[in-house]
């Protein structure tokens, strides 16, 4: 463990520096991070005969759960009426990952490693964006530590991708795997996490199917991003699929993704 909750300067918390929209995003993220055990179980099944990777996956899960605990602790400071435990129980009761398999859902172990790098790219950029958007020094510290962990996890999965010769896959296979996992970011997991973290505590009789709760999350999350977060994420994505993280391709992809992010955020807000 590179840090623990005891390393955070919780005494520096200032309720006057809490942004309500950012608080709602943090509550949601705390549930997703705390639910890492399902992914760990899946990775243990898929890589059952690779003890080195299984050990790394277990440690990854421990660190992800610590992320959830740190975010939840900050959220409970910001909103003393909110119960992280109750929200997590509600989330887990209604959303479960369907990953009961001993074969990678990505097609191969090498592709699994590419997909994991995509996830860590997204989370590293996301927590960097939270760090830079927050006026609360405690949240900046928490988000900064998590962002550093997620970049470390990206490098971890990149190392194992080399072991499984991900670079020998065709370029199309690598890009397709990355794009598929990237598109899955808007699946039901975040919608249910938003609902359990923010809607049900205030409206116990609310119905999940009543609206697209994921949109409520994304309109706030996307507003956090700035161009440097997109640039860093694109560099990581290009490396994950074996392409040069600079030059004309980088500039084109980064500009396109920045435009798409702004447009999507505006559409959701409108």
Automatic annotation (TrEMBL):
GO terms for molecular function: oxidoreductase activity. It comes from the Bacteria. Transmembrane segments: none annotated. InterPro entries: Ferritin-like_SF, RNR-like. This is Ferritin-like domain-containing protein. It comes from Sandaracinobacteroides saxicola.
């Amino acid at each position: 463990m590179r840090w623990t909750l005891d390393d955070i300067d919780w005494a520096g918390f200032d309720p006057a520096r809490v942004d309500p929209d950012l608080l709602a995003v943090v509550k949601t993220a705390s549930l997703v991070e705390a639910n890492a055990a399902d992914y760990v179980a899946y990775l243990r099944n898929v890589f059952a005969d690779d003890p080195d990777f299984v050990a790394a996956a277990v440690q990854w899960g421990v660190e992800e759960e610590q992320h959830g605990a740190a975010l939840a602790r900050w959220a409970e400071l910001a909103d003393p009426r909110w119960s992280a435990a109750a929200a997590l129980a509600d989330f887990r009761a209604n959303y479960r990952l369907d990953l009961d398999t001993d074969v990678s859902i990505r097609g191969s172990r090498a592709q699994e490693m590419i997909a994991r790098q995509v996830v860590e790219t997204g989370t590293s950029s996301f927590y960097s964006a939270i760090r830079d958007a927050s006026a609360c020094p405690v949240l900046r510290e928490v988000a900064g530590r998590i962002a550093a962990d997620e970049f470390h996890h990206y490098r971890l999965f990149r190392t194992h991708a080399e072991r499984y010769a991900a670079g020998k896959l065709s370029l199309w296979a690598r890009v397709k795997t990355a794009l598929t996992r990237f598109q899955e970011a808007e699946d039901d997991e975040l919608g249910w996490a938003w609902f359990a973290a923010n809607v049900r505590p205030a409206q116990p009789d609310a119905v999940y199917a009543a609206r697209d709760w994921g949109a409520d999350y994304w309109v706030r999350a996307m507003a956090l991003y700035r161009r440097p977060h997109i640039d860093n994420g694109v560099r990581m994505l290009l490396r994950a699929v074996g392409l040069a993280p600079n030059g004309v391709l980088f500039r084109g992809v980064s500009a396109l993704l920045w435009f798409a992010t702004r447009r999507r955020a505006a559409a959701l807000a409108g």
